[in-house]
Amino acid sequence: MNIGLVTLGCTKNQVDSEMLLGVFKSQGFNIVNNVEEADIIVINTCGFIQSAKEEAINTILEMADYKEYGRCRALIITGCLAKRYKKQILESMPEVDLCIGVDEYDNIAKILSEFFSRNKLLCQCKFTHGLDFNNRIISSTYPLAYIRISDGCDNRCSYCAIPLIRGPFKSRKMEDILQEVKNLAQKGIKEFCIISQDTSKYGLDIYGELKLSELLEKMSKIDGVKWIRILYMYLFETTDELIEEIAKNDKVCKYFDIPIQHLNDELLKRMNRHDNKKLIYERIAKIRKMVPGAILRTTCIVGFPGETQEQYEELISGIKELKFDRLGAFTYSREEDTPSYSYKDQIDEDVKEERLKHLFDVQKEISLAKNKERIGKKYEVIVEDVSENEKYFTCRSMLEAPDVDGRIYIKIDEESANKVIIGDYANVEIIDCNDYDLFAKVIE
Fold first, then answer.
1. Could you give the percent of the chain with pLDDT greater than 90?
2. Per DSSP, what are the bridge partners of residue 430?
3. Considering only CA atoms, which of 223, 351, 382, 363 is closest in space to residue 297?
4. Contacts 24+ apart (CB under 8 A), 354-359
5. In this structure, is the dihedral angle defined by the CA atoms of residues 87, 49, 32 and 196, taken in order, positive or negative?
6. What CATH number is given for 378-443 in this structure?
7. What DSSP string runs through 117-156?
8. C-alpha to C-alpha distance for 179 and 190, rounded to whole angstroms
9. Do domains 2-133 and 378-443 have the same CATH topology?
């Protein structure tokens, strides 16, 4: 039977989806990319904020149409939304045949076996394997894999539902992570993005000390590993030892993904963040001193309950001073069962949107200036694909993260077509830019 899987949300979900595909493939199911060809459609959902929940519901309804007008015979919902709203989904959406939350993944082989035994018209199949990091079907079209080194979170930010969905912070054993990387490298994966809800805390729960720097050092010694990128680090856990390892290790991207969320101490405290303005400025100064040329990416929240115009302007002033290379921003999403949901001083949506637009206008100028500084510089890039208009090769260097950052574009002409291979690496020189992307020519 054909299985089609739709993944929504973050890269942590992508890893779960790749393990789900591994489960189905091990049982002899045929994996298809086109859901129109699927007998069974699986949707791995996100339930983090309101927009993600709306996307998930809309996708479920869209995929449900294939049960009525296509060949789909079963619709399975997994992931964060399935954990957070399982009862509501099953009660209000009769189109859904099975709902499996992230808290049930350890028991997924039994759940799937029981489901298929009850639905003999689908097939008679007893699942013998559950989710396994070493049984993943990598979904990237180029040599990249995400490595999830922990799950859950203990930080308890007052706006965040992740601890409600994913539970407390839990690191994986280092030997298991290294074995996964070794297996993937042997299959041709060259770029490894380290992910979790709190990457910088890795190891503290099981080893009694922060172990990310040691993990980086050991990963870099594995044959076949070319680039290692760390995503989502907290500044208060970004130690001198970790910065030093990033600085000296040639395989580790000089890329710091450090969400600050705000720069006003009163709001940071209300958010239950562990950073403060002074610490943020000090750590960023240290990173730039110890790792010259490092790329700094952050995220911010505007419109958090009680945010005054003065506090918002403090954030804007700080962004202008700190000059992040990349910045993502979001309006505050009021999530039930989080502490900030009950805060009385909620901000009007119109005010949130106005502040967000202004913040992006400020960052656009900073990004353009940062990109102009890279004109004339040379980089090794991974060639990911061809642009939608088929006029450019789309690429990334060590300084661009997949999914969230701009791209380096090489114009497709006779010269580049003879030198560039999708899924391989090329050497380029930056020749132009806009506020988000870079343009390059191929060099020897």
1. 86
2. 440
3. 363
4. 355/302, 355/303, 355/312, 355/331, 356/302, 356/303, 356/329, 356/330, 356/331, 358/316, 359/300, 359/302, 359/315, 359/316, 359/319, 359/329
5. negative
6. 2.40.50.140
7. HH-TTT----------GGG-----SSSEEEEE-EE--S--
8. 15
9. no
For residue 198, count other CB atoms closer than 10 A to its CB. 21
- The answer to whether residues 141 and 384 touch, using CB atoms and an 8 Å cutoff, is yes
Provide the b/e sequence for 168-183 (b: ≥16 CB within 10 Å): ebebbebeebbebbbb
Q: Give strand pairing partners of 295.
A: 255
162 closest CA partner among 244, 46, 54: 46
CB of 20 closer than 8 Å to CB of 5: yes
Q: Each residue of 280-320: pLDDT tens digit?
A: 999 999 999 999 999 999 999 999 999 999 999 999 999 99
For domain 2-133, the question of CATH label 2.20.25.90 is answered with no
What ranges do the domains of the chain cover? 2-133, 139-372, 378-443
Helices 11-26 and 108-118 pack at an angle, to 10 degrees, of 50
What is the C-alpha to C-alpha distance for residues 184 and 145, in angstroms, rounded to an integer?
Answer: 8
**Mean per-residue pLDDT, 419-444:** 94
The answer to whether 302 and 312 are in contact (CB under 8 A) is: yes
Residue type, 172: R
Beta partners for residue 151, in sequence order: 170
CA dist., res. 71 & res. 376, Å (int):
53
The helix/strand/coil state of 297 is strand
What pLDDT band is residue 395 in, cutting at 50, 70 and 90?
very high
Q: What is the pLDDT of residues 131-161, one digit of tens each?
A: 999 999 998 888 999 999 999 999 999 999 9
**pLDDT for 333-365, tens place per residue?**
999 999 999 999 999 999 999 999 999 999 999
Token pair, residue 65, equals 């149409």
* Model confidence at 237: pLDDT above 80: yes
Instruction: For residue 156, give both structure tokens.
Output: 């308890």
CATH assignment, 139-372: 3.80.30.20
Q: Is 285 exposed, middle or buried (0-12, 13-18, 19+ CB in 10 A)?
A: exposed
Q: How far apart are CA 113 and CA 127, in angstroms?
A: 5
Q: In the beta sheet, which residues pair with residue 442?
A: 428
* C-alpha 229 chain-centroid distance: 12
CA separation, residue 3 to residues 36, 39, 42, 84, 401 (Å): 10, 6, 7, 24, 30
Q: How confident is the model at residue 121 (pLDDT cuts 50, 70, 90)?
A: low
- Look-up of token digits 């302007």: 313
Q: Are 63 and 39 in contact (CB under 8 A)?
A: no
